[in-house]
Amino acid sequence: MECNATYYNNASLANIINIGYLQMSFGSLTAATNILCMLVVLSTKQMSRKYGNFGLLSLGGMLNALGLILAGSIRKKLIYDNSYGSLSSFACFGRPWPYFFIVGGQLPAFVLIVMAGERVIAIFKPIIYRTYVTPRIRVITDIICIILSILSLLIGIFFSYLNRDICTNPTCTTVYATGRLYGTFNNFFIVLLPFIALLLNTMAYIGAKRLSVSTNMERELKKVLVSLMLAALAVVLSALPNIIIWGQGVYWNVVIAPYMNMAFCSNSAVNLFAFFFMRKDFRYRLLSFISFGYLNRYFKLSEVIDTKARQNMVQSIGNNQPARS
């Protein structure tokens, strides 16, 4: 179908171009930080096993950042080519950034829930955690997160096809590209899951504080604190901006709405600094990686064997249990 409506005057188009430059800058910085995180996680087998979830979190952040770069650059080019006009919802999926926004938005939300659930089990059911939450199970849960994100993308394409006769805004946000129903469904995951993860991590943190009578539980307390921080950042920088984006133009019109995608994108960049300051072994590995090993002489890389820690905790818990006659 033909969609010829013009949504913006020249001043508005100039503003979109300026925002596009900001989006490309924010997106490039965020993509670089997430690529760096993934390289550090993949640099050794030990880091991959210990921080696999964080690596997947960074993958989602990188996809979201790439979507922001593409949105800013292609919108700018369309404006310069006088091609920035109304189009159908399904035609919006001919532009690449909705794919990246859907997967890059939902994948980190699923991973946050997995991380929070793992911490709850580790605190309140430590024997079950050390026995059954193995590296293989972690890989399976990571794969499930990826599959769920891809399935959600396919559902979004289907809803976009159903709206193929509806002309929409050329910004082609997820809501415009798929329709209000799927846009709400998409935001349900991106907004609600970080809040649930924050609640679970808060429960785990309180439980760990009450039970921190052993070295192993103190170690779990540090892990919970990191997961809690990541969930809190996601609520502030991901969930809240997406609420504003979802309702923009329908329930409210706020001036800062065009900048919310950049706040959403910056969430994953901030995660790098949270991990850097809160995880000593990750910090040392990152410094070693970016210095090509030059800084190794100034500190010792802390290589903590996860399986060893697993055995130590099981042994510690077993020693605290009363002997059976």
TrEMBL record:
Keywords: Cell membrane, G-protein coupled receptor, Membrane, Receptor, Transducer, Transmembrane, Transmembrane helix. The keyword Membrane applies. Pfam families: 7tm_1. One of its GO terms (cellular component) is plasma membrane. InterPro entries: GPCR_Rhodpsn, GPCR_Rhodpsn_7TM, TAAR. Signal peptide: none annotated. The chain crosses the membrane at residues 20-42, 54-74, 97-116, 137-161, 181-203, 224-247, 259-278. One of its GO terms (molecular function) is G protein-coupled receptor activity. It is a multi-pass membrane protein. It is found in: Cell membrane. Residues 33-245 form the G-protein coupled receptors family 1 profile domain. Its main location: membrane. This is G-protein coupled receptors family 1 profile domain-containing protein. It comes from Plectus sambesii.
